[in-house]
């Protein structure tokens, strides 16, 4: 091991200093007269080598500061925690280009969401900042005060954390992740009525006010609990009416207004076999009789060739059903049924309608829970990744809890022993 330099840190000679060493290095004849002094004014240069062996230096006004810096830096180099300050001086926008290019392939919808969060939220605020200048408190304040909507804040924070974690790992461009411990405000609380799905009677009322053509689709959604993209992307070749089940193998999704086939459902648990009730079988048979779909299942390819001639549920003209077009049917139906309720989101100020088409999936799950189906089986049929979500989301039983309490608090009948205060 090479011997450590004895003159490290060393004092740098200054043209403005009048000490003997500086006058010798910079003669007055060439650099002007200076007032003579005993102590030198020159900065103290601390020299060190980075993990690659390249020599670097940093200047300090006092010798003690330079020695303290050397002690800290040598310790970080030995422990592998050293971060080159110059590597963190690039802008966040520059780092985004490097980091994003190295990310693994994701679902199209996930890629679009992350790009949107970058362009709409992170880039306008932090794009021109240097990585090394980001601080915890500024990020915390920005997220909770400027980014609207709890779910938007959560996804933006998730993306920003990933970017900065990559900067820490990439040769330690920054010594730590300033977004790692950022805390978000809790999500807004909703009344149980806003979470409860419609009853089966209400679903039947909605169907009565829906065009006849769409009623088999609504029955199928209510009887299977499939997501919209799973039901509208269901191909006749993946349905077995004799065995009374349908296999979820792909979904229809949307990319900036363009429909495409996606080989995988929402999660790995989305690949599943869904049992078909007699009502669901009848709904499928009605649509198959109308359109006579092909039994073969074509290859997905790039996803743009939709092959609507294989689909069970189609639009009135035989094309693919889209959310936007069906919304024109759904909202008038719930309004005519007297069930429509407009709710203004307190954070985003957007107007949302209740009930939604997706709530038919909640109706199905609630039925399973009320029928006593095991939570693990409910999780499997619904295609959920976690069973806890099933318990939390679908415990909106139709039983009137208030009525039960009133029954228990009612005055006892004759012959029944009364409770006495002690």
UniProtKB/TrEMBL annotation:
Gene3D superfamilies per the UniProt record, alphabetical: 1.10.150.130, Intergrase catalytic core
SUPFAM superfamilies named among the record's database cross-references: DNA breaking-rejoining enzymes (SSF56349)
Any Pfam family hit: Phage_int_SAM_3
Ranges of residues in domain Tyr recombinase: 193-407
Alphabetical UniProt keywords: DNA integration, DNA recombination, DNA-binding
PROSITE patterns per UniProt: TYR_RECOMBINASE (PS51898)
Taxonomy, superkingdom: Bacteria
InterPro entries: DNA_brk_join_enz (IPR011010), Integrase-like_cat_sf (IPR013762), Integrase_catalytic (IPR002104), Integrase_recombinase_N (IPR010998), Integrase_SAM-like_N (IPR004107), Phage_Integrase (IPR050808)
Similarity comment: family membership: Belongs to the 'phage' integrase family.
Protein name as it appears in the record: Site-specific integrase
Organism classification: Bacteria, Bacillati, Actinomycetota, Actinomycetes, Kitasatosporales
């Amino acid at each position: 091991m090479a011997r450590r330099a004895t003159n490290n840190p060393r004092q740098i000679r200054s043209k403005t200093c009048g000490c003997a060493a500086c006058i010798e290095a910079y003669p007055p004849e060439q650099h002007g007269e200076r007032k003579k002094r005993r102590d030198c004014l020159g900065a103290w240069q601390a020299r060190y080598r980075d993990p690659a062996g390249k020599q670097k230096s940093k200047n300090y006004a006092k010798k003690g500061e330079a020695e303290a810096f050397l002690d800290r830096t040598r310790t970080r180099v030995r422990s592998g925690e050293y971060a080159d300050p110059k590597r963190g001086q690039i802008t966040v926008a520059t780092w985004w280009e490097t980091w994003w290019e190295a990310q693994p392939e994701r679902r199209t919808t996930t890629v679009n969401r992350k790009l949107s969060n970058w362009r709409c939220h992170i880039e306008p605020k932090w794009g021109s900042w240097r990585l090394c200048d980001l601080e915890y408190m500024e990020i915390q304040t920005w997220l909770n005060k400027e980014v609207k909507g709890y779910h938007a804040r959560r996804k933006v924070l998730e993306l920003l954390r990933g970017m900065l974690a990559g900067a820490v790992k990439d040769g330690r461009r920054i010594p730590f992740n300033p977004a790692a411990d950022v805390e978000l405000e809790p999500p807004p609380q909703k009344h149980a009525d806003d979470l409860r799905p419609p009853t089966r009677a209400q679903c039947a009322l909605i169907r009565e006010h829906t065009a006849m053509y769409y009623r088999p689709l609504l029955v199928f959604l209510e009887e299977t609990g499939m997501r919209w993209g799973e039901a509208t992307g269901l191909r006749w070749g993946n349905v077995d009416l004799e065995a009374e089940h349908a296999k979820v193998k792909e979904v229809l999704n949307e990319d900036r207004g363009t429909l495409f086939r996606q080989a995988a459902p929402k999660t790995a648990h989305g690949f599943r076999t869904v049992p078909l009730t007699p009502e669901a079988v009848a709904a499928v048979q009605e649509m198959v009789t109308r359109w006579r779909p092909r039994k073969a299942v074509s290859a997905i390819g790039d996803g743009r060739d939709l092959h609507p001639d294989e689909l069970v549920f189609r639009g009135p003209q035989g094309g693919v059903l889209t959310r936007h077009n069906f919304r024109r049917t759904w909202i008038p139906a719930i309004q005519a049924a007297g069930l429509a309720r407009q709710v203004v989101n307190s954070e985003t100020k957007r107007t949302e309608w209740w009930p939604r088409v997706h709530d038919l999936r909640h109706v199905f799950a609630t039925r399973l829970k009320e029928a006593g189906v095991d939570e693990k089986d409910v999780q499997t049929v619904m295609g959920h990744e976690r069973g806890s979500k099933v318990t939390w989301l679908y415990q909106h039983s139709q039983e009137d809890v208030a009525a039960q309490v009133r029954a228990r608090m009612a005055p006892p009948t004759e012959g029944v022993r009364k409770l006495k205060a002690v």
